[in-house]
Amino acid sequence: MMTKRVRGARAVAAIVGGGAVLLATACGGGGGEDGGEVTLVLDTFGVMGFEDRIAAFEEENPGITVEERNIVDTADYTPQLQQNIASGSGAGDVVAIEEANIAQFIAQDDRFVDLNDHGGAELEENFLAWKWEQGHTPDGKLVGLGTDIGSMGVCYNVQLFEDAGLPTDREEVGELWPTWEEFISTGEEFMEADTGASFVSTIQPYFRAVSAQAGGAVYQDEQGELVLESNDTTRAAFDTVTAMSEAGLSASLPIWSDEWNAGIQNNTFATLPCPAWMLGHIESTAGDAGEGRWDVAAVPGGSGNWGGSFLAVPEQSEHPEEAAALAEFLTAPEGQLSTWNAVNTLPSSPEALESEEVQSFTRPYFNDAPVGEIYVPSAMELEPVYYGPDTQAIDDAFRAALESVEQGQASPDEAWDTAVGEAERATGEG
Amino acid sequence: MTSTEHGAPPSARSADPRPAATATGRRPGRNRGTLMSRLDVKGSPYLFIAPFFVLFGVFGLFPLLYTVWVSLHEWSLIGGNEGFIGLDNYVRLATDAKFWLALYNTLGIFLIAVVPQLLLALTLADVLNRRIRGQSAFRMTLILPYITSIAALAIVFSQLFGSEFGLINQALGYLGFDPINWRGDKYFSWVAIAVMIDWRWTGYNALIYLAAMQAVPKDVYEAASLDGASRLRQFFQITIPMLRPTIIFTVIISTIGQMQLFTEPAIFDTGGNMAGGTQGQFQTVMMLVFQEAFRYGNYGYGSAIAWVLFVLVVVLGLVNTLISSRIKGA
């Protein structure tokens, strides 16, 4: 809509004469031109910390102005972006895409610029292998360049661990659970101590963590076919986390619900799967009273990731060349370090991850936990994971299924069948 | 101006001076003039009501018919129209356990929400129709829930019906009862949603009843009182019969609204994926439409469900009308 309206305005302006000045102020949407001046619109969500680098980009490229349009909630941002992409107008020149939705947009790759045509192919070493892969179509078109990642750790409640007679030092805690089996037996030990709290809040986020560790296709393969019944790893992850529930470890609080958040404040559960960004959520939820109560240890199985984003250039952009340059500039190692320094989103560039700034970083709220040291190895070791275009819907189905197990409404087998049935509906196979 | 052979009523003709002027001006234009005037007389009323019908056509009828068209296709968010498949979506729907479950949920919630709601609204209206202190304050309070934002509703009721820290469960705990899993247990989830619906709509219906009650002549009640009829008897033998058309109206409106029940169960759900609980305990038909179309991207199948729901609403509306005309006739 936006570009069309701008073009219409241009025609009118030409007739009236001298309308070019008006036009420059009128086109906030699709990016416009006025005597060599280029305005690029950057669509972002949440807090991405690009401000410094945008200023640097504008300085290095005179004549280009970058306008950031931010929508805080991805639940609002993504459907709007999807509509703009599908209708062929209204999207920014560069758009941010969240990990859970990247495959959905890659499935519409004809609506995005192949960044290989703009020097993207040489950037491979700027990214972790799995992150680089996630931004590609099955036939090698480069749609998205990685910004940040989530990586994976386990947050634990220091006070509850102490009450249960478990070690509280983060090194020792990490050594309690090299594998998920040992994580579960630690949980059983914790429950025997009868602290009144549960060991895990809900098994759903653990499912995501465990299933990603196996690498490869989790729900769908690159042709979009469901692999739930053909690969053993997803079912194995399902069995691992339902075993947590069977062992009575779960508080059964649906993730992100008010009750779940209240549980973070009220010491209702002892552990949480913790991507780097989750630290911020705990800090803001538990507040001042919770300072020093939570700490973060290594994740069982060693590797993992949850969340993170990409930048892509929609085909509808009128300045693909400049837009691609902006995307590459923002996702370069220096760009990622800059956002790390600004808002602590973990870089997806190995070079940035290994830098002193990331490695030596500690977080006071979590007893000065060396966050960089804990998260970097987990991100480096992760095998490439593939999430298909219907990931969001399938994830929702598994979430419901896992919650029905922990709330005692269904057996693991029944819940698995339900989830597979829903996944078939979501992929159109049902 | 001998126009009687054209058959137009003279009164209508004389009301419009324009064709007459044209007719006297030029002879060849005379036929056209009378034609224009006939068109004006016959056409103008349609022109005046056209805006509604044009808008209804664009925003009401077209989407309705387009939904039928979409429902006959394999149609997805990303792929668009993927080919004509005839009635396959409807055949699938007939054997789809999720659809029948959603329909069962919708009808179940409808029953436990609407029946108490209308009874309560009637009682409230009757109380407020009497001379009581602070009458207008109470009457205004009735409409408050209806104008309260949905977001506030969601927050308040999620605090009330939380399973772990919810107010109701805490109160039950003090009284020595086990906590209720409001979202997990099918029938308790229906009760919670029915409470939300009734909280929001009872006052609205009560106001409609109240308006109708004020139209009942006071002398009927006075005569009844003189004859020694109790208030209860007055209510059942004067108020209810006099309100019959209004009651029928609210029943029909509630039926149409509740069949499309969406907001309350959607905000009661956690996560916003329109699954209606972990096992679809309270997934309504509208939620299923939303889930299929906008969460799973199956526009074709979603449209088929939406269309069947529309037909169901029409059928239920007709049944309502039939019953009510019988009542009127009796």
Question: How many structural domains does the protein architecture of chain B include?
Answer: 2
Number of helices of chain A: 20
Number of helices of chain B: 14
The CATH homologous superfamily of the largest domain in chain A is named Periplasmic binding protein-like II
Question: For the record, what is the CATH homologous superfamily label of the largest domain in chain B?
Answer: MetI-like
Concise overview:
Chain A is α/β, with parallel strands linked by helices and about 425 residues long. Helix content of chain A is about 50%, strand content about 15%. Chain A has two domains: about 1-150 and about 305-355, 3-Layer(aba) Sandwich (D-Maltodextrin-Binding Protein, domain 2); about 155-305 and about 375-425, Periplasmic binding protein-like II (D-Maltodextrin-Binding Protein, domain 2, 3-Layer(aba) Sandwich).
Pick out its properties.
heterodimer; A: 430 residues; alpha/beta; D-Maltodextrin-Binding Protein, domain 2; 7-stranded mixed sheet; 20 helices; globular; disordered N terminus; B: 330 residues; mainly alpha; MetI-like fold; two-stranded antiparallel sheet; flat
What does this molecule look like?
The complex is a heterodimer of chains A (430) and B (330). With 430 residues, chain A is an alpha/beta fold. Chain A has two domains: 2-150 and 307-354, 3-Layer(aba) Sandwich (D-Maltodextrin-Binding Protein, domain 2); 153-304 and 373-427, D-Maltodextrin-Binding Protein, domain 2 (3-Layer(aba) Sandwich), CATH 3.40.190. Chain A is 48% helix and 14% strand. Chain A contains 20 helices and 13 strands. In chain A, strands 1, 2, 3, 4, 5, 11 and 12 form a seven-stranded mixed sheet that branches. In chain A, strands 7-9-6-10 form a four-stranded mixed sheet. A two-stranded parallel ribbon of chain A has the order 8-13. In chain A, helix 3 (51-60) links the parallel strand 2 and strand 3 (64-71). Chain A starts with a helix and ends with a helix. Helix content of chain B is 74%, strand content 3%. Chain B has a two-stranded antiparallel sheet. In chain B, helix 5 (97-128) runs parallel beside helix 9 (186-214) and helix 5 (97-128) runs antiparallel to helix 11 (231-259). Chain B starts with 9 loop residues before the first helix and ends with a helix. The A-B interface holds A 75, 79, 82, 86, 104, 107-108, 251, 253-254, 256-259, 262-263, 266, 268, 389-390, 392-393, 396-397, 399-401, 403-404, 407, 409-410, 418, 425-426, 428 and B 74, 76-78, 98, 158-159, 162-165, 181, 184, 270-273, 275, 277-279, 292, 294-298.
